[in-house]
Each structure stands twice: as structure tokens, then as C-alpha cells.
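Quick log. Single chain, no ligands specified.
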Amino acid sequence: MLKRIAAEQRGVTVVIVALVIVVLLGIAALVVDAGRLQETRRQLQNAVDAAALAGAQQIAVDRTKNAYNEAQVKSTAYTYANSNGVSNSEVAEVSVTSIFNDKDSVKVSAQREIDLLFAPVLGVSSRNVGATATALVTQLKYDRIWPWGIIENDLPQDEEAKKEVITLKVSPGGQPAPGDFMALGFTPGAKDYENYIKYDYNGYVPSGVSDSNPWMVPSETGNIVGPTRDGVTYLQDQAQTSPYSTNDLRYPLIGLVPILDNDAWADAEGKKPVPVIGFAIFYLYSYEGKGGQAEVKGRFLDTAYGVGESQNIGGDLTGLVGARLWE
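-> predicted structure:
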């Protein structure tokens, strides 16, 4: 009797264990399918993010050339979707839309059908996975302010003049005033001056800087050869490995140079504050430092707007603009 009962109990246990194993295998199978769906959704989201940003950046570039081409915008978006593993047949939508300004955004959607491995036992053989992204063309927030000052009259007045390089910091013999080499001292000291070239000035900047509301900044006297050389060389080295293009404000050799009142350097007299009345976007072109020289040259790109303020999302697309993900 006891042997029979024990045998029956063993049989029941085997059945229970078998059922538990089946349930656990089913759960594991569903987890595997769910993981594949989640990974596919992540891949699609990355692809549409990249595609939308690339399309919006193409609009930004076209605006600088006054040559908007919607076909090129869409082609760029498709190219970036493809390079991120999404085929043209999986791209459900590429459209240029208007959120704040006319044709200021790009929307990209993609879908992919995934054959499930284990869910078919539950009657589900496949699932569609989708992702959508919208990128907006907007003014970019300006962070990099270099410690040099250029007077307003020295800015180029036409497109042809923009091709010329402009001296941002002079060497001995070119001083606009005794002891001043067109350098600014946001805070005093040669080391701070060097760091502001390398790592940006991130201190207080009043909003609405203009002729009627100047920002008074002390000049930094002396030729400052070493700090100028080390600061510019650092940026040039950073540019060698930068992931950003040369028309992107995040590129190390693009930054802001304060615009000074035309009489600023004539009235500077050493460390006397000079009036900053605006900001210009410059590409850092070269550094010349032989024989005690320390001359910095740049190429003017555009006038900057909104410096000292938060990013003006939805505002007029003036100055250099770029793309950011919107939704």
C-alpha cells in the first residue's frame, strides 16, 4: 500500500514539474520575443531621430545659402535612415512641416514587421513596430564666447568681404591702443584668459546687449603669447577629432567674438572697460606665433542673436540656426 501511494505521489510530482517547466519555458519565450520587439523599437527610434535631425540640418544649411530644396531635404533624411539600418521600404513618412516658422521641421516615421519566435503558440505570428521623430530648425543657444573684441566697423559688409580673414588679436605693432592687443579680460589674469579660449566663458552675460545697453568688459593688456598659443592650439587639436561639422556651433573652431563700439579701443587706456554692443560668430582660421607674434585670425560667419538669454525656440530664424529633436 505504502509503495503504491509513494509511486502515485512521484507521478503527480512529475506532472507538476512538467507543467511548471512548460509555463517557465513559455514565459521565457515571451520574454525573448518582447526583448526583440524592444530592441527593434530602439533601433528604429535611433534611425528616425538621426534622419529627422539630418533633414532639419539640411534645411538650416539651405537657409544660409538661400537655396531651399525640399527634395534634397527628404533625400538627406532617407540617406541617414538607410545608414542606420532602415530601408526605404520601412520608411513610412518623410515630410517637411511647419511648427513655428514656414518649413521649419522634418518628421520621419518608420515601421518594421518582426516575425516572432515563440508567440505563435499563442496565435500571434508577427508584430509591427514603429517609431516617429520630429526635428526642429531653431536658433541655437550660444555658449562659446572668446576673449577678443572686434570693433563694429571691422565686420564685413557684404558676402564677398566675408571670404576675407579678419584679425581678432593683434601682435606687437598692430595695437589699437598702447598695451592693448584686442584681448578681453572677462575676469583678470592670463590663466583665466587662456581657459576662456579653451573651455568657453560661462559667466554672466546680460541679455539684450546692444548700442543702448552695452556690456562693459575690461581689456586684457599685454601680448599674452603663451596663453593665446596654448588656447588656440588646444581648440585646433579638439577640432581634429570633433564629431561635429564645420557649420555646427558645437564645432571647436566656431565661437562668438564680442563686437565693440567703434571707439572702444581708442578709449581703452589699459584695463579700462570697453563697451560690448553685440556678438559675431567666427570660424577660428589661424594662429601665427613666430618671433614673439601672437596673432589670431578668423572668418566672419554671421551675427549672433539671443546671447545671454535662453534658447529662443520658435523665434525668427536669424543668425546661424541648427536642428534639435522636438518630439
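Helices lie at 2-65, 70-83, 190-199, 225-240.
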